[in-house]
Design a protein that fits this description.
Elements lengths: L7 H28 L4 H9 L18 H14 L1 H20 L2 H7 L11 E5 L15 E5 L2 E12 L4 E9 L9 E7 L5 E6 L10 E12 L3 E3 L4 H37 L1 E2 L2 E2 L4 H29 L5 H26 L9 H9 L9 H12 L10
Parallel strand pairs: 1-4
Antiparallel strand pairs: 2-3, 3-7, 4-5, 5-8, 6-7, 9-10
The protein binds coenzyme a persulfide (COS).
Length: about 400
């Protein structure tokens, strides 16, 4: 049976998160974007509600949401402010490898830190390097075993929460000649000697989020923080991204929806040639396309999230959703600026921020081209497109 009905719990969660986005995020979104900083009080409130770690089980003080519900909550948070929501969402990305491959002690030690309402900590996912972006298997950060420690050396870049994280999930290679077979994963605390923060990025959009380089200089990681053994690291990275890309798709729909709502409101109010511009077919058809694509995108991310929640393989569906929804996000936000005409280009209007925020959706957690690579790779084994099996 195909059932599009949300559960009462899902409806309640979406309503609560929407109210948080409306009442807490929207009022500070433009200022946080301008100043490039996160509002601390807001983060504490988000932590108290489990919004700093949506998919972390309740037993570790997290939001306790399944992947579908987490994605729907993510749509609401990104509707509120994509910059703030990116920092909150980066926590989920960082801790997903711990959820997949970490042991019980690691989960108990690190996961509750994210949702402490008094002093919520951030986490960051450390995969990308200057020489290894889309080609994640080519990372150069090295790890060697030395007595009671693993010693890490290397440089990570474009790390969301890099400068504010309490701990990082870092991927490094024991032997680069083994390619992805040499990769392992570690939990690295910010306080460890040799961890330092490099350049802070000055970004086009999602400016409230913190993005930096993270430098690892002879960092001694205790053996109990060995999270994913050599040979398994790359698979865990791929499994992590399979789960979190549906979240980026949902984020894209949140930003697109915000832009659509602004454009619709404006098109009904703005009078030209003696009538609201919404009464001009050129404009109303733009709005119709926006609504149609947002709806289609939402179904795609929900399906990917539903499969992930059931523990079913969701690599293909996550890539469908991420590629489609991020393209929708860019198109809708550009057109929302267009509907506003000259006003849309000005910083007083929310659509200006939304258009800048949108672009990253086609880039982070795997570019649109990488999503198409994953989709095309899946097609290699397909002989027909009959879906009913
Ligand atoms: N789940 C589990 N295993 C997977 C997998 C998945 N989704 N995707 C690939 N693998 C496995 C493959 O089966 C293969 O294993 P075996 O050789 O044991 O069969 C191994 O991983 C290597 O796969 P592949 O040859 O496809 O790897 P590539 O180096 O060609 O890279 C892509 C694959 C491009 C998909 C990957 O590097 C990627 O996702 N890049 C983007 C990285 C990214 O998103 N960065 C953003 C960081 S967070 S902002």
């Amino acid at each position: 049976m195909v059932d599009f009905e949300l559960t009462d719990e899902q409806k309640a969660i979406c309503k609560t998160v929407h109210e948080f986005a409306l009442n807490e995020m929207r009022p500070v979104a433009l200022e946080c974007d301008k100043e490039g900083k996160l509002p601390e009080d807001l983060v504490k409130k988000a932590a108290a509600m489990g919004l700093t770690a949506l998919a972390v089980p309740e037993e570790y003080d997290g939001g306790g949401m399944d992947q579908l519900t987490s994605a729907m909550a993510t749509e609401e948070l990104f509707w509120g402010c994509a910059g703030i929501a990116t920092s909150l969402g980066a926590n989920n990305l960082a801790i997903t490898p711990i959820l997949i491959a970490g042991n019980e002690e690691q989960k108990k030690k690190y996961l509750p830190r994210l949702c402490d309402p008094e002093n919520p900590k951030f986490a960051a996912f450390g995969l990308t390097e200057p020489g290894a972006g889309s080609d994640a298997a080519s990372i150069s950060t090295t790890v060697t075993e030395e007595g009671d420690y693993y010693v890490l050396n290397g440089q990570k870049c474009f790390i969301t929460n890099g400068g504010i994280a309490d701990f990082y999930t870092i991927f490094a290679t024991f032997d680069k000649s083994k390619k992805y077979g040499g990769i392992a994963g570690f939990i690295v605390e910010r306080s460890y000697e040799g961890v330092s923060i490099g350049k802070k990025e000055d970004k086009m959009g999602i400016r409230a989020s913190n993005t930096t380089e993270v430098i690892l200089d002879n960092v001694k990681v205790p053996k109990e923080n060995y999270m994913v053994p050599m040979g398994q690291g790359f698979y865990v990275v791929m499994q992590t991204l399979d789960l979190t890309r549906a979240g980026v798709a949902a984020a894209s729909i949140g930003v697109a929806r915000a832009a659509f709502e602004e454009a619709l409101k404006y098109a009904k109010e703005r009078v030209q040639f003696g009538k609201p511009i919404m009464a001009q077919q050129a404009i109303s058809f733009m709005l119709a396309d926006m609504a149609m694509k947002i709806e289609a995108g939402r179904r795609l991310y929900q399906y990917a999230g539903w499969k992930a929640s059931k523990g079913l393989p969701c690599s293909l569906e996550s890539s469908y959703a991420k590629a489609f929804c991020s393209d929708v996000c860019v198109e809708v936000t550009i057109n929302a600026v267009q509907v506003h005409g000259g006003y849309g280009y000005m910083k007083e209007y929310l659509v200006e921020k939304l258009m800048r925020d949108a672009k990253i959706m086609q880039i982070y957690e795997g570019t649109s081209q990488i999503q198409r690579l994953v989709i095309a790779g899946n097609l290699m084994g397909v002989t027909d497109a009959y879906p009913w099996n």
